[in-house]
Amino acid sequence: MRASVLESFGDPSNLKYKEDYPEPKESELKDDEVLVNVAYSAVASGDWKARMGNVQLVYKMNLPRVIGIDFSGTVAAVGKAVKHVAVGDNVFGTQDNPKEQGTLAEKVVVPSKFVARLDPSVPLDQAGAIPTAALAADGGVQKLDYLKEGDKVLVIGGAGCVGACAVQMCLNRVGKAGLVIATGGSRNKEYLESLGATFVDYAGDERGEIERILGGSKVDAVFDSVGGSESYQLARTFMRKGGMCASAGGPIRNGGTTKVGGGTILKLFGGVMGWKLRSLFGGLKYHMVMGLSPETRLGVIADMMKGKKLEMRIDREFPLHEADKAHDRAQHGKLMGRVVVKVAK
Ligand SMILES: NC(=O)c1ccc[n+]([C@@H]2O[C@H](COP(=O)([O-])OP(=O)(O)OC[C@H]3O[C@@H](n4cnc5c(N)ncnc54)[C@H](OP(=O)(O)O)[C@@H]3O)[C@@H](O)[C@H]2O)c1
Asked: Which of 251, 296, 313, 329 is the Cys-Cys partner for 337 at CB 3.0 to 4.6 Å?
């Protein structure tokens, strides 16, 4: 089969396109596995960091390996115990086991709990682009489950893939009577407004603008997709007493770009623990999304997509033989949405 194989860690040119990569065999499918004909895979920051070898400490891969986590496609075969999807169904999900073959290949075998059925109306490019981003947003928004119609939310970094999912999920909760303020770059003003958010330019007078919009009131919750102490302070400034800040970014601003070592992990856990401790003494209530829950939440996300209550913006699509270019764009481009790889011909 056709596949993009990572031969050694480093720049995108280490991804090699193959037309004769060994195909997973239907006869070797375990009872709880699904064989998927992959339509689309996505390139998120986690993918290019894995390609660089930056996350070997937490996501140890042996090379050569087909990388790629998110996918959409159709079911080619199912194991004996699989009941929730059938051959021919459109599906999406995550292949997040670094020991197994990833999704930049025409076929992939995935544990059935990480696969969900899609309504045929859901575009496969969006479905392939969304899993990790939507799961991260959902992990945070679930912590904000007290939000009700008419409430106010601040989403820090609302135009990124995780942030835009959080904007839509929060809008679904607070309704037209509510308010979702989303910070982003000026090039994303129109996009954020089209989602129904109230835009604030992060490069302008961010605090002054939020203050003006709130008119002296506070927000009921904050979702942070950017991270770092700057986001924590912003959340603290505008949060009402008792409100929660859910963060996909955590203490490290923009996810960090360097190799994850012991120091990074200490900074991450130390930061989260410190902020959690402060909340015991009247500080901001803080939750960091750690560990996604595809097994229980992919179905919920599929339902949101079916009802067009959740959509994903595609930055650019590349064919499988240009997966290296897709990685380069995802790592170095000024993105407007997710970079996707069209795996199927
Ligand atoms: N905790 C988890 O389980 C989990 C899972 C997935 C992702 N993440 C993390 O979530 C973060 C976002 O991921 P993503 O896939 O959404 O990335 P993305 O699509 O690249 O989006 C990042 C967005 O942040 C914006 N941004 C940067 N600095 C900002 C600021 N000061 N204020 C407002 N917006 C700002 C960027 O805008 P410009 O382009 O205009 O600068 C961009 O729109 C990453 O750090 C990622 O590592 C965490």
From this structure: 313
